[in-house]
Amino acid sequence: PLRWEYLELDVTELATPEDVEPALVRLLEELSQSLLDEGSNPLAVGCRVALTGRTPFRAELERLLANGPSGTRISHELVGVHFFVDEVRVQALPVVDLEELARRDDPVGLLAARIVALRQPGSALRERLVAAAIPKMGDLNKRSDYGGGALPVPEEDEVAALLEDAALKALDALLAQVPPADGARGSGGAA
Fold first, then answer.
1. How far apart are the first and last CA of the chain?
2. What is the pLDDT of residue 72?
3. Rounded mean pLDDT for each run of 10 residues along the chain, 191 residues in total
4. Helix and strand counts by DSSP (H, E) for the chain
5. What is d(CA 171, CA 115) in angstroms, rounded to the nearest whole number?
6. Distance, C-alpha 68 to centroid of its chain
7. Distance CA 191, CA 6 (A)
8. What backbone phi and psi angles, to 5 degrees, belong to 42?
9. DSSP run (H or E) holding 47
């Protein structure tokens, strides 16, 4: 039988865009081992892969997948199972220099400054942001469509991580609307 799998490949640590194909093959090998461990025996496994993380090569990955040997052309035979990649989506976000962006006097700068603060345990701004979010998360948890109080409110570090993740996504959306100021996007700082 045919089995479908959704996989995520974090491309943050890839040195070049061309490293995506060997990384995809390693991901298929890991999946193969996982299927062996669980005793599953499909004849073929179709995979849809999301490239995640942050990379300075986002545009190059898009071009490589559109024109190159990656994407739907990857297939691999492992322990009698045919693995193929049906689709690869680039969901990885660009690398941004948060310190540089935080110096801006606009909504992008304001949001970047908050992200920087969220990464600094003990910062007064971080404590205020987390303290303001915890009761709101508790209120959401009490709603019946969120389990009616079944989930515990996350700890401070978890709340800070959730806030940072949401803020980074919002920052990326803002940056997509506004032209970058003097190389602030993709200048090598880790986001």
1. 42
2. 44
3. 92 91 91 89 90 86 70 70 86 85 93 92 93 81 62 80 86 74 45 52
4. 6, 6
5. 9
6. 23
7. 26
8. -75, 160
9. strand 44-52
